[in-house]
Amino acid sequence: SIEGAGWVELREPDVAVEQTGPQPVVAVVGRPNVGKSTLVNRIIGRRQAVVEDIPGVTRDRVPYDAQWNGRAFTVVDTGGWEPDAKDRAAAIAAQAETAVVTADVVLFVVDAMVGSTDVDEAAVKMLRRSAKPVILVANKADNTSIEMEATSLWSLGLGEPFPISALHGRGSGDLLDAILDALPEAPAIVENRPRGPRRVALVGRPNVGKSSLLNRFSGEERAVVDSVAGTTVDPVDSLVEIGGQTWQLVDTAGLRKRVGKASGTEYYASLRTAAAIEAAEVAVVLLDSSEPISEQDQRILTMVTETGRALVIAFNKWDLVDADRRYYLDKEIDRELRRIPWAIRLNLSAMTGRAVDKLAPALNKALASWETRVPTAQLNQWLTALVQATPHPVRGGRAPRILFATQAGVAPPRFVLFTTGPLDAGYQRFVERKLREEFGYEGSPIEISVRPRK
Ligand code: GDP
Ligand code: GDP
Q1: What residue's CA is closest to ligand 2, atom 26?
Q2: What is the average pLDDT across 357-366?
Q3: C-beta 80 within 6 A of ligand 1
Q4: CA 265 to the chain's CA centroid
Q5: Which of 9, 128, 275, 280 pairs with 344 at a CA distance of 20 to 30 A?
Q6: Residue 354: how many CB atoms within 10 A of its CB?
């Protein structure tokens, strides 16, 4: 028996995952009872909460995360499509049509034991209008004789039927291969990348104290380099121990050679800063607490957020901050750092060593936020409640609706909202703020994009 063999495994949440672009969407459509939810459970490996377990979320249109052969996609289960349905059934049918509109690929499920019905033929017309790629699934083909009969489903005009048994697993690998072929450039997942030391950029304008802070950690450096076997570290990087953990500080060569430091132009320094941020996973931006937050500080902070790296802001030279300075600094922080309230802030002194031990926990926290993945079902449960409580404001008699959301990637967390139309910038900011309130993301930027249905 091939039951269970090669079935899609759900990603473990703590595994490093990198992927680009929004996750493609597969909608599962068909008459009630043809086996759609059985098929969806097969595809997601039954690892996620079954829908009935989630209060407030009906079976109407529920997205799940799935992956096959290293490619991730979202599966949307639909309750069942009937052309002449009344009331609640009609609402479910309408949702199935919506799911088709937002999908990249449609799995049209037919009961192979029954063969095609009038309702199936009506559904085919609806699918034709949508002009989406459709894969015809002949479910309940539990044995070879039903499988043979399934060939009659060619008559539906959707091409070759895929005979499968969602219940027993038969034929499912071929179906998943066909799904991947039909998906638009599905993002690749690179999993389990070898976990060497985390890469940190120590950046800030000249004289904020970067070299001084680096020197604080450099005592153990030689020993650490020898003990980390098999890691390739760029010669311009430093491996240092901070808080009992080994970190790779990228592009610290310039901080060590004090001669080279003086000779660089500001333009060159800024390129170097950008390259270090690019190479890092998390950036420590040092500010001189004894001086006003400057435009140059702001440019460096912007580089970090635009590159999508985790961020810790270190207010260095805290030993120079008296009550008077503290008063003005608080005002500056309110004014100048308003756009990044999520950044982790530390008040430290490279000179006295104050709060330097807080750096490693701050880096770990920022990186954890940066790599957080929220399961799709949980995300949508939260989103459904949010848009119910605070719908999008009405504009010109119409209000766009958010149909559902998926997390397209991590590092940093990226979300895609599927909507009936473009969202107001203000409402999008509201969703981001609420998303942070719910799921945290302290120390990490997050990205939200909107995909209005065509
Ligand atoms: P949905 O309404 O389309 O989501 O259908 P369900 O997934 O709830 O399945 C309806 C019924 O068909 C259930 O009793 C399933 O156990 C059964 N079923 C689903 N897939 C198969 C299959 O491959 N073979 C057989 N024999 N029964 C199946
Ligand atoms: P870099 O250009 O960012 O690498 O800055 P340096 O590490 O060379 O520091 C610039 C100056 O600030 C030096 O004179 C340091 O001694 C001084 N400095 C660095 N950190 C501190 C600190 O925490 N407190 C005080 N008072 N001075 C500091």
Answers
A1: 317
A2: 96
A3: yes
A4: 38
A5: 275
A6: 16
Counting ligand 2 atoms within 8 A of each CB, the residue from 203, 205, 207 with the most, and so the one to mutate, is 207
Ligand 2 centroid to 216 CA: how many Å? Answer: 12
What CA–CA distance (Å, rounded) separates 264 from 454?
51
pLDDT band at 260 (very low <50, low <70, confident <90, very high): very low
Mean pLDDT of the chain: 82
Ligand 2 binding residues, C-beta < 6 A: 204, 206-212, 255, 316-317, 319-320, 349-351
Residues with Cβ < 8 Å from 25, sequence gap 6 or more? 63, 73, 74, 75, 76, 102, 103, 104, 105, 406, 418
Whose CA is closest to atom 25 on ligand 1? 140
Cα within 13 Å of Cα(113), Cβ side: 8
Supply the pTM of this predicted model. Answer: 0.63
Give the closest ligand to the alpha carbon of residue 35.
Answer: 1
- Would you say the CB of residue 349 lies under 6 angstroms from ligand 1? no
Give the separation between CA 149 and CA 141, rounded to whole angstroms. 9
Residue 194 or residue 102, greater confidence? 102
Cα distance between residue 332 and residue 312, in whole Å: 17
Output the CA 300–ligand 2 centroid distance in Å. 18
Residue 332: the pLDDT is 97
Nearest-CA neighbor of 383 among 16, 56, 40, 12? 56
Q: What angle do helix axes 425-439 and 376-389 make, rounded to 10 degrees? A: 130
Q: Per-residue pLDDT tens for 15-66?
A: 334 444 567 889 999 988 899 988 998 888 765 444 444 443 445 567 888 8
- Residue 434 has a pLDDT of 95
Tokens of 61: 């249109």
User: Which ligand has the minimum distance to the alpha carbon of residue 213?
Assistant: 2
